[in-house]
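3.2 Worked example (two chains)
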Amino acid sequence: MTGTIFCFISAMLYSSYYLCAAITGAGQLNPFYAPFGSLKVFAVIALIIGVAYLIISEYGYLKKKKKA
């Protein structure tokens, strides 16, 4: 569940980056120039944490299932 939440947070941060870029870039020549590039960095970090957490938990589940 926690890994899924991190992946969801990553998707929200990633989409909010482009939404904010579209809002601030309306009427400018380069609409994807945005001074808030940290949203993309945080989105990638959250995605890495989420996927790692999912992989680790699935590995632990399979390992526990083999023992039983």
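3.2.1 Second chain
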Amino acid sequence: MAEKYPLVEQREYGRPEKRGSIWRKRITRADEELPRVAAHQVRVFRVGEEYVEDHGQLRADDPVVVDASSVTVVDRRIEVPVVVETRIPSAEAGDFTVRAWFHCTVTDPCAVVRDGVTDVEALLLAHLREVPGLTEDGSDLPVVDTAAVRARIDARLTAYHEMRPSVVSGIRARHGVIEVLTPEEMSAYVAELERTRRERERDRQREEMEQQAALDRALREAELELKREEIRNLQAVRKERNRQEEETLRTGYERGAGVEQQDYELAIERRRNRFTRDEITDDLQLIGSDPLSADFMAWRNGDISADELSKRLHAAEERRDTRQDDRLRLDRDYEFQRHGLDRDDRRWQIERDDRRQELTRKEEQDETAARRHEDARRWDLEHEDRLRQRQEERADAKELQRDQREWAKEQLSVRATLGKQAIDRGLFDSTMYDAGAFINSVGDVAYNQSPSQGGGPEMPQAELKGEVKGELRRGSRRTAETEPAADDMDEADDFDPANQEGRLGN
């Protein structure tokens, strides 16, 4: 079991302080005041009389954290084993040591913090001692009979927990394994625990000594390296300082010498420029910007002769006239060029409009031609469809007429054959039926239905009667050639289907 269960850490808060920059200060707590939580731990903040559970999501400036008076870290692991030991008397001088294992799980962290559940072992021990009859389970058995005592106590605790589970605020405790130890086993267990504790303590002290020695060695090495680095830095600084001082002295001397030489040269140049400016000022005051005055000044100084002066004066007059003429010519050329550009612009505008109209007219013509072509193609397709439909109807009508003609021929042949057989066998001798009328009716059978009834054209009556007569004549000839004897005729009539139909008619 962990040393701190279920409360891992507890902190009490004072009044929060304002933190932040000068312009944006706000009341908040430091990040160090929020305890870190593991994956199986939660934080519970107490705000007045309320307790707020946090899974590590609240920040230091959250109102809950700012208003909290304390914070507690609660362990939320499942089935944490907690061992509780107690003694019960035996039938002999020694006592039994009962060691009970409870598996605890925090179900309500706020209730655990509110009720101050800090020592779970003490609470479970009190609950174990409240089990009625627990101390009497081993009073009638010797010390060596630990198995029977363990069975009794296990059964008693199981029954008691079924009736009354252990009640610890915010924690669910489940009864686990029960161990019953004799005084010798308990002494051995305690000695083993003590030996383990001493070995752990010795190992911890040895590790601490080793860590301290390693730390001291690392510190000494670090200090030595720092001193070496300081010496190297000091030497480098001194060398750099000497170099800088030497460079400063040399630069200062060179700068001073250069300044003195430059001042001397500038003073001479300043006097020369002053004299030149004075001369130029005097000349400007006397001559100004008049070229004639400049020419007279040059003539007076002897730079040019009187003839040169006269030529220059004459040239100045010509230049003045020429400038005026050039100005007039330039103005006239500008006007001509401007009128020409305006005329070109208007012509270009007209040509652009004509081109646009021509393109528009061409597009309309193309669209009209395409529409006409599409109408012509559609009319051709419709005409071809009508022609094909008429041809199909004509072919269907011909096929129907041919079928009806064949069917009429077959009917006519059958009726003619039946009439011939009936006449040959004398079926009309004993009846009032007129054979001529029957023959005429056979000849009057329509060759086909009328066109109004969906059939083809009728066959002429003359052709029909001629075919009937010819069929009767051919039938009588075949009858005369193949007529059996009178005695055999009676026997043949019994099996002739036509004869049977005639008899049924009689």
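3.3 Remarks
The beta strands are 7-12, 17-20, 25-28, 41-47, 50-54, 70-75, 80-89, 95-106, 171-181.
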